[in-house]
Amino acid sequence: MPIASNDLVDKFGTQDTVTTGTPGSIATGSFSAAGDVALWTNDDDAPLAVFALTCQWAAVTNVSNKRIALYARVMNIDGSSDPVAPSANRKAQPIGAFLVYAASTATNYLFDSGIVRLPNANVDQQYEFYLENQTGQTVSSGWALKVTPMTQGMAA
């Protein structure tokens, strides 16, 4: 069946890489560091996004069917004031997760978050994104996180 005009379709913005340099490793049960991911501005004011994660493990024992949680720190929510960054002592509600399937060593694994609702509080909302490693093994340094803003609208 062809998509007709006025049918609901997904619309995607430009994918942005939000990791900086070579991000450090993430021990199991820990969060990524603030400096690993650059501040990202939702200049499309998109209500949704899709995230892509590329990572490796030095040891992959028992990582299958575990997850890496994705958190968004919404910046400048009260003027220039920011909430506290997520951490092991402050686990805010994750906005999404990457489910880890069966892994093998020394291979880049690509994960898709599926559609995630962005917690927009302002026009051109800025975020810091954090990962929480819940896999039982350390995520190796050099992982990469990308975000693609998304919305839905009528087909032309």
List keywords for this structure.
single chain; 156 residues; five-stranded antiparallel β-sheet; four-stranded antiparallel β-sheet; 0% helix
The gist of it:
The chain is mainly beta. It has strands at residues 8-12, 16-17, 40-41, 48-55, 66-74, 96-100, 109-117, 126-133, 144-154.
Descriptive overview:
The chain has 156 residues and is mostly beta strands. Helix content is 0%, strand content 38%. The protein is built from no helices and 9 strands. The strands form 2 sheets. Strands 1, 2, 4, 7 and 9 form a 5-stranded antiparallel sheet that branches. Strands 3-8-5-6 form a 4-stranded antiparallel sheet, with no helix packed on it. It is globular.
Radius of gyration (CA) equals 17 Å
In percent, how much strand structure appears in the residues? 35-45%
Structural class: mainly beta
Query: How much helix is in the residues?
Result: under 10%
| CATH fold-type name | Jelly Rolls
CATH class: Mainly Beta
Oligomer: single chain
Structural topology:
Elements lengths: L7 E5 L3 E2 L22 E2 L6 E8 L10 E9 L21 E5 L8 E9 L8 E8 L10 E11 L2
Antiparallel strand pairs: 1-9, 2-9, 3-8, 4-7, 4-9, 5-6, 5-8
